[in-house]
What does this fold into?
Amino acid sequence: MLFKTITKENFKKMVEGLLEENEVIGPRSRDQDLEGNKIYRFLKVNSFEELEMDYTRSYSSPKNYFLPFKEDFATYRLEDNNWEQEIRYTVHPRVIIGMRACDINALLKLDQVMLKSVYPNPYYFARRQNTLIIGLDHEPLEDCFCRSMNTDTAFHGFDLFLTDIGDKYFVAINSDTAYIIINQFDAREVTEEDQERFKTVKEQIKSKFKTQVDITILPELMDLEFESEVWKKWGDKCLSCGSCAMVCPTCYCYGIEEDTNLTFTKATKRRFLYSCNLLDFAAVAGGHNFRPEAHIRLKYRYYHQFRGFVEAFNQSLCVGCNRCGKACLAGISPKAVIDDLIKTEKNEY
Amino acid sequence: MERPPDFNNKSLLMQTEKGFKSEVINIVKLTAQEKLFQIRILGSCEREKFTFLPGQFVMLELPGCGEVPISISSSPSNREFIGLCVRKAGKVTGMLHRLEPGAMVGIRGPLGTHFPMQKMVGRNILLIAGGLGIAPLRSPIYWVNEHRSEYKDITILYGVKEPGQILFDYQFEEWRKIYDLNLLTIVQNPDENWKGKVGLITELFEDISIDPEDTFAIVCGPPVMFKFICAHLADIGIPRQRMFVSLERRMHCGMGKCCRCNVGSTFTCLDGPVFDYWTVMNLKEAI
Amino acid sequence: MKYSGITLKKPKVGFFDFTGCEGCQLQITNKEENLKALFGLVEVVNFREISSERRDDYEIAFIDGCITTDSEVARLKKIREQAGILVAMGACACLGGVNNLRSRFPLPDVVKEVYDGHHVDTGPVRKVAEIVPVDIELPGCPISKHEFEWLVRHLVLGIEPQFPKYPVCVECKQRLNSCVLDMGMMCLGPVTRAGCNAVCPRNRLGCWGCRGPSEEANFESLMEILREKGFTEEHIAERVKFFNAFSGILNSDC
It folds into this structure.
């Protein structure tokens, strides 16, 4: 991998350059929580000043810029007894600034499903190909457990990855496009001092993880504790509101609906992001629901994240960002649920 | 350095994302709830390329209304049309039932796994269907007929709740006499005209002899039926890897993306709908 | 008019207002660019906001407002007799709605306060379903024009409409809103039926539950959460009772 450094001043110029010709998405804050902490969101950025480069964690992941919450798969022109289908997957180029290592790893996991499977998803592919990703390191928060999920560093899946080493960024470059861009803004070769500072920062980050989740025997545990009371305990609290899946960087379950216009001359086939926690997720026509209870649905969200995906791709789907834990009003977090499962297994429960 | 792969196989994409426009050429009303749609892919090139194996399904689309997964219940060698047996159950299937011949629908597929007919060559096959489960079995029935000399004894056990729910009875004579299959039916709640056997499908086992060493089983019907039937078959010594079932789940994409058909650690649309019973036993909440 | 070769009949429809602000009827007439197409789908035989025609051969009746007087009860029953399909439209018709607030006080006190002792023919606030069977409930205060058009398409096609079963949170998160509960505001979004595109939380107003409860909503859990967040019982009760959406589900002490 190629490394360079860029001063913060030049980085600002680079962003301004990117803003001129591209849609730029980055962390912004609009609201505050009760303690006065800013609530961040990945939104369209109009000027460098709007970017919050020292943001902590966005409430929702930037997943929706690759898998939109709602997306038209096809449109149809309807005639009396005939129709014509039109499919478009062209998208405008986009730049996303400030994605964390966990979010980039989340994309790599989504790539497994959306690009490397039997049936690639062309809509996702188009967005993935046309998005320039600028990653950004950060010090772990109280509840980040990405280190346990092995997603605290990103080696690929981005174009540039920045580490703040004081007055400049230490930059990993991962694409030719990014290499050309950064070189236009006086990117410098890495000096020995830069390298030392980079190492110190990385060590600091590593030493600051406070939350660990033990996933060593989790896939087995998911089967062994399938009937565990733990699921009922958390399921009873679950609001079945789908917030966890919406904010999650990797939850990709969806539904498809079709509708027509008022004159029955046009129709649309639309994909909408769904959540396995929602009541009718597994309900079939005729009324049977394969997962009628909240705790069963909650269990399956974990089962997919920590068992099903492991079986298919040798890795958990979860990246340890704890956004679901933060967004859950009922306080259901992976850390709490998994710790409970482990306790049950050890009969400490 | 890893980048998203390029799609070399453009035709695959076209097939999966873009449905084949097809004409409904004939509709056979089977019962009050079920109709058989004979569907012909319009493009001759696409029609030529559309090949499937017994047990696979398609997503059947009525633009503006929606898409539903339907198992193919015609012969794989039938290049003229695809037979889809549709039960009126929800929004899309209800609308499909109102179509007239000449209507245009979309199909995506064929999707999913199939019954391993090749593996069964030289063996007896026991096909067991409950209710609508007979529809996906028509495809393997056609298959064994067309390759009749390759298989030994073929037995079909078919159970329904009421006599009025029996599907494809107009073909039973043909299946018995020409296809040389042994077909036994049973009804749970008979009416005054029913002259056949009465009871649960498992009671038909009394009337046949099964050589567990040399028999493959294909089971299709409601999940509660699999459980009892497969347990019985396992008891008499048929290995679970030689029993095949077809699962039903909610599906939106048919391509392993939407997760709606998730069963345990697998997806019914990609890893199924046909599973061997050993796999089913190892899947959480499959039955 | 045809769809996939199926000939579609134009249903005759009537709109009838009861005790309410008629805002739901106004919503229907609001989006002018779609009006022509909308009224091309149905034959309006009775709709006093837009037409002087008053015919009683309607097949589908849309009811807005709650039922408060004896004469309204009689009128509603007559409409039910005529209509093949009866749609309760908006929070008042579906739930009782804002009007139900007055049910907290003795009726004579309310009449005295509001009408200063003048005789008024009024009784308890009731939702439409308390008087006659309702076929379809189109929720919201007011109803959404978009959803109304969607419903009409279903009626013309003869398909039973499936409203979202899940709560507002799904749509709220999809709009990347900050959770108003995190910001210290009261919100019933987690137990309220979605379909409004989270319009209130979007504007930093907690949800008031105008669309009624989502299916199998977990009230106990939300109540516990609200109490933990420090909301008082009075505050919770005020919100929960506002549209009368959760009556019969909550304990009487709440």
In short: Chain B has two domains: 10-110, 117-282.
